[in-house]
């Protein structure tokens, strides 16, 4: 499996002067209705939002084995010409190599702040979404097992979901992620407070307009708000920050043209 950093280095070396964004770019992800889980849904939405903000055409392709097709084993990934690029930050770098950027008007200090917030979000929200999906007993038994196993025949579905759960928990621990609910939720609350303070009453996190930070926040907030789960404590925490909810609504309306449903109320 190729790491994101190795892939990114390869892209930067190879792409050279090929600066055209094709009309047949594709984004690959798992099926939304019956398969995708909260962590993957957040990541896929973040990439979709970034591509929409950058006004880049793409077709979403749903594949049951999207993760196995990905160069890093993570979703989503895009196929642009001969290149396969997975996950938000490598995709942002790939797009920037085509002289397309959402951050060209930011100062170096603002770019540094943006990267710090994105790292915080990936750590805190990523860990929390994995915790709820794989560690919360009720969510795991009623939602995760069914959705993850939906594409596999019996008994393979049970074997693979057990292996995935074990691997995810080990990865969470290796990355220093917390695996006790109270600590996980406390981190989310602190992260939301930090984001809420940074956003204030602005439309986006930076005055120049939406950036990949806005796309990343949208991906996580939208997913948490609209994913029905037995354990809805993440939802409750996020709803305590009205400006983050309004930010999410704004991006949804501007870039996805969605009519707000009861999930927002």
UniProtKB/TrEMBL annotation:
Q: Which InterPro entries match?
A: Glutathione-S-Trfase_C_sf (IPR036282), Glutathione_S-Trfase (IPR040079), Metaxin_GST (IPR033468), Mito_Protein_Transport_Metaxin (IPR050931), Sam37/metaxin_N (IPR019564)
Does the record carry Protein transport as a key word? yes
Query: What keywords tag this UniProt record?
Result: Membrane, Mitochondrion, Mitochondrion outer membrane, Protein transport, Transport
- The residues that cross the membrane are none
What are the Mitochondrial outer membrane transport complex Sam37/metaxin N-terminal domain coordinates in residue numbering?
A: 44-165
Main subcellular location of this protein, as a coarse class: mitochondrion
Localization (cell): Mitochondrion outer membrane
**Protein name (Swiss-Prot/TrEMBL):** Metaxin-2
């Amino acid at each position: 499996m190729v790491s994101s950093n190795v892939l990114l280095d390869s892209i930067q070396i190879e792409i050279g002067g090929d600066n055209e964004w094709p009309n047949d770019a594709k984004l690959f992800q798992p099926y939304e209705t019956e398969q995708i889980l909260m962590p993957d849904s957040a990541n896929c939405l973040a990439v979709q939002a970034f591509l929409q903000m950058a006004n880049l055409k793409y077709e979403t392709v749903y594949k049951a084995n999207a993760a196995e097709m990905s160069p890093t084993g993570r979703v989503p990934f895009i196929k642009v010409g001969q290149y396969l690029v997975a996950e938000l930050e490598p995709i942002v770098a790939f797009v920037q190599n085509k002289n397309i950027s959402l951050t060209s008007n930011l100062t170096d200090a603002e770019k540094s702040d943006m990267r710090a917030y994105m790292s915080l979000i990936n750590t805190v929200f990523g860990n929390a979404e994995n915790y709820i999906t794989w560690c919360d007993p009720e969510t795991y038994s009623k939602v995760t097992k069914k959705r993850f196993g939906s594409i596999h025949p019996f008994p393979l579905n049970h074997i693979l979901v057990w292996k995935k759960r074990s691997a995810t928990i080990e990865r969470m621990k290796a990355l220093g992620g917390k695996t006790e609910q109270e600590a996980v939720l406390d981190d989310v609350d602190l992260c939301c407070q930090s984001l809420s303070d940074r956003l204030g009453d602005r439309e986006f996190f930076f005055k120049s307009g939406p950036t990949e930070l806005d796309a990343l926040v949208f991906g996580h907030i939208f997913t948490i708000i609209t994913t029905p789960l037995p354990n809805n404590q993440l939802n409750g925490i996020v709803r305590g920050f009205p400006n983050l909810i309004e930010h999410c609504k704004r991006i949804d309306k501007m870039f996805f043209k969605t009519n707000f449903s009861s999930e927002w109320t």
